[in-house]
Structure formats: C-alpha cells, structure tokens
Specification:
Blueprint lengths: L3 E5 L10 H4 L6 E2 L2 E2 H11 L4 E6 L3 H8 L8 E6 L5 H8 L1 H4 L4 E5 L2 E3 L3 H11 L3 E5 L5 H4 L2 E3 L5 E4 L11 E3 L4 E4 L15 H11 L4 E5 L4 E3 L3 H13 L5
Parallel strand pairs: 1-4, 1-6, 4-5, 8-13
Antiparallel strand pairs: 2-3, 6-12, 7-14, 8-12, 9-10, 9-11
C-alpha cells in the first residue's frame, strides 16, 4: 500500500480569473464544497495517510483552510514555492517530504471516480518507475496525447520522443500518477519544468518503463468556467464514490 501523496496546488488559475484573484483554484467550490476537499476524500479512501500540498498563489488561504489535516483524517504538510516551479519542479522541491517510498501525485483541479487502491495495485504489478492514469477521449490531443503500446507501456507523451512507433493508442492524461522514489533521479532541482513535457520524455527516450492504467471512470476538471460549472452540476447530481 502507498501512504503518501502530493496535490499540485500552486498555480495561478488564470483561466478562472477574476474568481481566482481572491480564491485559490483548489478552494473554488464545486458540488457544495471546496474542490480540494473532494480530492482529500479520494486520497483518504485510497489508503493515503500523508499528503503534501505545494503552495504559491494565495497559498496561505489553502494552508489556513486545511491546517494539519486532522479534520480530514490525514496528515498534511506544505511545500512552499517562492516562484512557481511547474509540475515537475514542484514535485522535485517536495522530495524531502516524499522521498524514500512510492507516492501518488494528482492535480489540484482534477478528479476521477475510481478506486485509488486499484491504481496502486496495477502500478505495483507492472513494476515501472511511474504509472499514468489515462482515459480515452476524442479530444485527447488537446490535453497532451499519451500513447500506449499493446502492453499498456507508455511510448510517447505530448509527441515525445519524436520517433513514432506503430500500433500505438492515444489517450488523455487527467492528472493522476504513481511514482517510485527513483523518479527524483530524473529531476533537476531548483528550476521550473513540466513532468509531462520533460521528465516523461526523458524516461521514455532512455527506455525506462512507464505504464498507463486505462480507465473510463467519470472525470471532472475545474480549470475553466465552463468545466467548473459542469463539475459543480455533476458532483451535485451524483456525488463521486471511491
């Protein structure tokens, strides 16, 4: 069982301005609650006990709301960023809080209705350095295409490495991964970078095994006003169960 997770929550939320001028995106309400609380429910149901949240824009608002995590049944720690480090840089900065054992990472604006324990079991069975949860979607390319071979091994992410293979299937990535601690060896400290656009392509070019865990689970995202409205409607209509 994996007991540690990180939630990426440092971003500015520019597509939700002016709402995010005063409220950090992860605390924007959806389904009658701050969206981040739904994420914490998902993690706790999946056996997570310790959560790291990275913070920058209006970060103190998030820290004040969550506190030490006790009221959510979790232990929450914070990784502060004086400048935004993007997804990969943020994960690398949190290494002192995450290193030494496998961990889950998820975006602070995205949620799937699935059992995290099943994803963890899949990751452990495949024994790769990372597992990306992926979904079939006709608009997958707009999210950054993730391409899998017949064995569900990830072969290309966002068009990298540039040499295409035959018989690959394209999926979208909804922002949930599982990592082995060795992932930190592939990340440079103190610099902003994207884990999907830099770290994954480096792993694939070096033939380091990364796997895709395919799901057709319900998914909501709050990164635009339209998606926030849709997420609010969906979570009120039929709350997620894990």
């Amino acid at each position: 069982m994996i007991r540690r997770a990180m939630v990426l929550a440092a971003g500015r939320g520019t597509r939700l301005v002016p709402l995010t001028d005063t409220t950090p995106k992860p605390l924007v309400p959806a389904g009658g609650r701050p969206f981040l609380e739904h994420i914490l429910d998902f993690l706790r149901a999946g056996g997570i006990a310790e959560v790291v949240v990275n913070l920058h824009h209006l970060g103190q608002r998030i820290a004040d709301h969550l506190g030490d995590g006790a009221r959510f049944g979790l232990r929450i720690q914070y990784s502060w960023e004086s400048t935004i480090l993007d997804t990969g840089g943020g994960i690398k900065r949190a290494e002192p809080l995450l290193g030494g054992e496998p961990f889950v990472v998820m975006n602070g604006d995205s949620l799937l209705e699935l059992r995290l324990a099943d994803v963890v079991a899949y990751h452990q069975q495949r024994a790769g350095i990372a597992t990306m949860v992926v979904r079939p979607d006709p608009d997958a390319a707009q999210y950054g295409l993730v391409e899998l071979d017949r064995d569900n091994r990830v072969r290309r992410v966002t068009g990298q490495p540039p040499q295409p293979l035959s018989d690959l299937r394209g999926f979208m990535f909804p922002g949930l991964h599982v990592f082995e601690p060795a992932i930190f060896d592939w990340m440079a400290p103190g610099t902003p970078f994207s884990v999907t656009r830099l770290t994954y392509p480096r792993l694939l070019a070096a033939d380091v095994p990364v796997y895709g865990c395919i799901t057709d689970a319900r998914w909501v995202n709050i990164d635009t006003p339209a998606r926030l409205a849709a997420a609010d409607t969906e979570l009120r209509r039929r709350p997620f169960h894990y």
